[in-house]
TrEMBL record:
Family designation: In the C-terminal section; belongs to the PPC synthetase family. In the N-terminal section; belongs to the HFCD (homo-oligomeric flavin containing Cys decarboxylase) superfamily.
UniProt superkingdom: Bacteria
Region feature (Phosphopantothenate--cysteine ligase): 11-221
EC number annotated for this UniProt entry: 4.1.1.36, 6.3.2.5
GO biological process, one term: coenzyme A biosynthetic process
Record-given protein name: Coenzyme A biosynthesis bifunctional protein CoaBC
Catalytic activity: (R)-4'-phosphopantothenate + L-cysteine + CTP = N-[(R)-4-phosphopantothenoyl]-L-cysteine + CMP + diphosphate + H(+); N-[(R)-4-phosphopantothenoyl]-L-cysteine + H(+) = (R)-4'-phosphopantetheine + CO2
Keywords, ordered alphabetically: ATP-binding, Decarboxylase, Flavoprotein, FMN, Ligase, Lyase, Magnesium, Metal-binding, Multifunctional enzyme, Nucleotide-binding
Purpose: Catalyzes two steps in the biosynthesis of coenzyme A. In the first step cysteine is conjugated to 4'-phosphopantothenate to form 4-phosphopantothenoylcysteine, in the latter compound is decarboxylated to form 4'-phosphopantotheine.
One GO CC term, this protein: phosphopantothenoylcysteine decarboxylase complex
Species name: Hansschlegelia quercus
């Protein structure tokens, strides 16, 4: 109601990268800062929701008023997300590694006569698609899409393929750099079409997205 439209609602958010071990000292990772996901968790809490944030390794502080669960790998993230269900809404803002190393070496891989090792990769579970198509699907499921070209077109395809209600698409090729930066410029791709929001801070994107989620939840109850 009014200022706190998510009172009585539970919201699950994923954020940050995942780290996939190669050996005890090395990982496969990506450059996600977690800023956008953490801002969404904090905005949902400010809107009155009970929020669980499942985050990969990040260098930013925990958002206020949120239960934080830290994980490293995609498989740990999926398990933590499933343990946190049910939820009224879920926002998948994590940059989950698409692949992990097929066989994580128990010992540090040594440089040597054999030359550089070949790393065989296997696909990680798709957390968003698993939850969106699962029995305990939250009423509202929001995904993200970081693209460098044909952003909206790819987001529309992703909406259908993953079973999300909304895809927040951001052009990570644009100057100003969403990756790691403070600002973000996004398109909200939903069943009724596309809204392109002007560039704004990740905090502002988070607040506006939480309003959209509250409206969508309201429309369903
Ligand atoms: O397919 P792509 O990785 O571009 O989709 C991005 C969306 O899917 C994001 O919302 C991301 O959090 C989610 N995702 C996921 N698990 C994966 C890969 C992506 O939840 N393994």
């Amino acid at each position: 109601s009014g200022e706190k439209p998510l009172v009585g609602k539970t919201v699950l958010v994923t954020s940050g990268p995942t780290h996939e071990p190669i050996d005890p000292v090395r990982v496969l990772a990506n450059r996600s800062s977690g800023r956008q996901g953490h801002a969404i968790a904090e905005a949902a809490a400010r809107a009155g929701a009970t929020v669980t944030l499942v985050t990969g390794p990040v260098a930013i502080p925990d958002p206020e008023g949120v239960a934080v669960i830290r994980v490293e790998t995609a498989r740990e993230m999926l398990a933590a997300v499933e343990a946190a269900l049910p939820a009224d809404a879920a926002v998948f803002a994590a940059a989950v590694a698409d692949w992990r190393v097929a066989e994580d070496s128990g010992q540090k891989i040594k440089k040597g006569a054999g030359g550089p090792p070949t790393l065989a990769l296997v696909e990680n579970p798709d957390i968003l698609a698993t939850v969106a198509k699962g029995a305990r699907r939250p009423a509202i499921v929001v995904g993200f899409a970081a693209e460098t070209e044909r952003v909206v077109e790819h987001a529309k395809a992703k909406l259908a393929r993953k079973g999300a209600d909304f895809i927040v698409a951001n052009d990570v090729s644009e100057a100003g750099g969403a990756m790691g930066g403070e600002d973000n410029s996004v398109h909200i791709v939903g069943p009724e079409g596309v809204e392109s929001w002007p560039s704004m801070t990740k905090r502002a994107v988070a607040a506006a997205l939480v309003e959209r989620i509250a409206a969508a939840l309201g429309a369903r109850t």
